[in-house]
Amino acid sequence: MFPARRHRATAVGAAVVLLVVAACASERDVPEVPTVSIPPAPSPTASPTPIPEPSPEPTFDREARSIDDPASIWVVVNKLRPLDPIDFTPPDLVTAPVSATNPATMRAEVADALVALFDAARVEEGIELQSQSAYRSHATQSTIYANGVAANGVEYTDRFSARPGHSEHQTGLAVDIGVPGGECSFQACFGELPAGVWLAENAHRFGFLLRYPDGAQPIVGFDYEPWHFRYIGVELAAEMHEQGVATLEEFFDLQPASDYAD
Ligand SMILES: [Zn+2]
């Protein structure tokens, strides 16, 4: 027992001496240590940061407006979805104060959006646009369709011209857009003009949809019409643009409408 005790006493004594020496040294020579900047230690990645509960994505309410009511800006009209009533007349038709070859008649909300669209094309790109056809009554569409059939037959006419009651132009929400001078008016080549390119890329910002995209005939029922824009409101247009969904039929999970039922 004794030897062990003696060893411990010696060790304690040595420790005290060392401490005193160290203390004296630190008082005498104040830092001559070159300062070295030490990068901050990386925050430990392994620390269990709690993964937040995925907050539910705010989902777009597809039922916020009717797609059946012809007075709704979301109404879907195609070869399988006639307007109801078939001779529907929009409630608030006005003439949009824009360059036009035919009366730029359309619903008031659409007129405001069209003015903003045309202004933006002019300001942003120096592009002048023109309304070439807008609201068409059931009677007018009947005449247009009948003339088409008389000249070219039913099959050909149905590719380009809606039967009365099936035209978006009867809703007061559709506008055929061209350029002053009429270059490529109502022709596929309009889509390649600067005006057509700009419209395809920017119409959604103002609530318009290029309603009959290239290659979508089996879904929408009409050949490519880069001039035909349908007002659906900024909210829906932005959502479709963001999702990359090109047609109303796909967005609302509707039956493709390549042709009339009868
Ligand atoms: Zn049209």
UniProtKB/TrEMBL annotation:
Stretches with biased composition (Pro residues):
37-57
> Which keywords appear in this protein's UniProt record, sorted alphabetically?
Carboxypeptidase, Hydrolase, Protease, Signal
Annotated Gene3D superfamilies: 3.30.1380.10
What residue stretch is flagged as signal peptide?
Answer: 1-25
Please provide the Gene Ontology terms (biological process) for this protein.
proteolysis
Q: Where is the D-alanyl-D-alanine carboxypeptidase-like core domain?
A: 105-233
Which InterPro entries does the record match to this protein? DD-CPase-like, VanY-like_core_dom, VanY/YodJ_core_dom, Zn_M74/Hedgehog-like
Q: Where is this region: Disordered?
A: 31-64
**One GO MF term attached to the UniProt entry:** carboxypeptidase activity
Tell me what this protein is called: D-Ala-D-Ala carboxypeptidase
Q: Which organism is it from?
A: Microcella alkaliphila
